[in-house]
């Protein structure tokens, strides 16, 4: 074997090893992707209930007595805003949404996802969407008052999917730091992996939102380092129904300020109230 042949053989061997290592890396990413996407805070139910009571909320339970989420003890006939939180933490970590929602004349309800907080269950696109749909149906069974979905980050994907599946049950969407397609966000963070091919939970909000003709309010963080501000702009443009967009130019993904009675939340909720025909 000549020197040239030896070099070619060595190169092919290295190439084969490199391809094998890359295939192994792709396999690991495929198997571990949900651990890379969902970062729940877990807590036994007694401890979660104790923390909730200290924050002046109580468990919101399903028909079997299981915890669905959290809300105020007092009920009203006001329209409800169901909060669908992001991929990290838990619903009790979003208590600061309640004063914002209440200042606009709505009742706030915090949904806890399966596999988060004290709840058992699988963390996946299918399970989160199915659970949120069941939560909306339970709210509608309690009262005929309208239900708005407030999605935050990953929760915007949940909201878009629920609205597409049950448009008659959803009076409006408020999407904070939203994304258009999770596959594009994943490809941005892992450019060396074929995420568009291996992603199981695709969260295609751009496709889902085209099936919802109700009012949509979009709040964008101008310096969004997680999903990118352009994702929210594209999503807003794709909405077939009434849509209004707010962009906070200096806010990052987790830095959208939440002050009761202040923009953009007060304006966004007023927009949804008016467009959904809820009156004042």
Characterise this structure.
The chain has about 280 residues and is of the alpha/beta class. The chain has 2 domains: about 1-35; about 40-275, Rossmann fold, CATH 3.40.50.1820. The protein is built from 10 helices and 10 strands. The strands form 2 sheets. Strands 2-3-6-4-7-8-9-10 form an 8-stranded mixed sheet, with helices on both faces. The protein has a two-stranded parallel ribbon with strand order 1-5. Strand 7 (about 145-150), helix 5 and strand 8 (about 170-175) form a beta-alpha-beta unit. Helix 4 crosses helix 5. The N and C termini lie far apart (about 85 Å).
Oligomer kind:
single chain
Reported by name, the CATH topology of the largest domain is: Rossmann fold
> Quick one: overall form?
globular
Q: Quickly name the level 1 CATH class of the largest domain.
A: Alpha Beta
The CATH homologous superfamily name of the largest domain equals Alpha/Beta hydrolase fold, catalytic domain
What is the helical fraction, as a range of percent?
40-55%
Name the structural class: alpha/beta
For the report, how would you describe the main beta sheet? 8 strands, mixed
Distance between the termini: 87 Å
The low-pLDDT segments are none
């Amino acid at each position: 074997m000549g020197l040239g042949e030896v070099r070619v053989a060595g190169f092919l061997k290295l190439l084969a090893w490199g391809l094998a290592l890359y295939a192994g890396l792709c396999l690991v990413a495929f198997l571990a992707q949900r651990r890379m996407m969902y970062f729940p805070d877990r807590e036994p139910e007694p401890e979660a209930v104790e923390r909730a009571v200290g924050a002046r909320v109580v468990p919101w339970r399903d028909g079997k007595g299981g915890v669905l989420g959290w809300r105020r003890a007092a009920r009203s006939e006001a329209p409800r805003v169901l909060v669908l939180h992001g991929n990290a933490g838990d619903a009790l970590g979003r208590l600061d949404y309640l004063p914002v929602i209440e200042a606009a004349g709505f009742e706030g309800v915090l949904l806890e996802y399966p596999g988060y907080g004290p709840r058992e269950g699988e963390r996946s696109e299918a399970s989160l969407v199915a659970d949120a749909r069941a939560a909306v149906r339970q709210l509608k069974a309690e009262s005929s008052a309208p239900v708005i979905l407030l999605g935050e980050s990953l929760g915007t994907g949940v909201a878009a999917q629920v609205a597409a599946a049950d448009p008659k049950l959803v009076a409006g969407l408020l999407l904070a730091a939203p994304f258009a397609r999770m596959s594009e966000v994943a490809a941005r963070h892992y450019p060396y992996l074929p995420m568009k091919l291996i992603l199981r939970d695709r969260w295609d909000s751009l496709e889902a939102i085209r099936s919802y003709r109700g009012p949509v309010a979009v709040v964008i963080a101008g310096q969004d380092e997680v999903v990118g501000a352009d994702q929210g702009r594209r999503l807003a443009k794709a909405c077939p129904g009434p849509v209004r967009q707010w962009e906070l130019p200096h806010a990052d993904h987790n830095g959208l300020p939440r002050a009761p009675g202040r923009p953009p939340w007060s304006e966004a909720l007023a927009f949804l109230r008016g467009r959904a025909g809820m009156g004042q």
